[in-house]
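Lesson 9: reading folded outputs for more than one chain in a single document. The general rule is that every protein is listed as its sequence immediately followed by its structure tokens, and records are never interleaved. Here is the first one.
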Amino acid sequence: MMTECYSTTIRAATRKITGMYDAALEPAGVTIAQLALLRRLSDEIALSVEDLARTAELERSSAARNVRVLEKQGLVSIGKSETDRRAATILLTPHGVHVRRECAPLWEKAQRQFEEKMGSEAATALRSLLRAV
């Protein structure tokens, strides 16, 4: 069903694009949403859940829930902040570093597939338009 609603159209496109990236990343055992978080984390400098949420443009509760999933997969470790005992900090584990590295060529392939489907110029224009939101 066609709609004039921008939100509905963008959400439908997002589901299709997410599915394409998730399929590409399947060999590494992560989703594009998980990779987006892994790419913001370090194995040397701890990041608070609040800072991760802010940089990922997520609600704090969503970031915390996703971090717990990453922890169960052995991709991150959760610790306590040295300056604020109430705050949790997140570090990539060696396995998380490995998986993030393994994802790089898979992500690149998904990028190329999207550009081939849309056309390089249209894909670049779309990214620019969406950044303006």
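And here is the second record, again sequence then tokens.
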Amino acid sequence: MTVSIELVTMIVTVATTLLGLAAGFGWMITRTDTRFEKFEQRMDARFEMSEQRMDARFDKFEQRMDARFEMSEQRMDARFTKVDVQSDRVDARFDRLEGELKEVRAEIGEVKIAVARLEGPSPRLLVAR
């Protein structure tokens, strides 16, 4: 079997064309991959910088909020201390008033007894026999 030179040339041309297309596609994929890697590196750097800035902002915000909460806590502690002192004063007043009320009750009891003695026994009706 003889193969004509035109057929061999056509087969070699098709094979070379396919090999060229495959090599071109591989080159394009490699180049695109390199470009994506560079883009990814740039984006990673940007995100890292952005993350650092956000972390710094949140740290500052957290410090400010901690300071505010600390101040609020100190004010509330001062208020509660003041209320405790006032509460102790009120408790002392109530204790004093309770003692005074007991004294007044005792005196009222004595007054009732004195009045009853002054009035004497209640008049009784004398019945005729």
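What the second record shows: Helices lie at 5-119.
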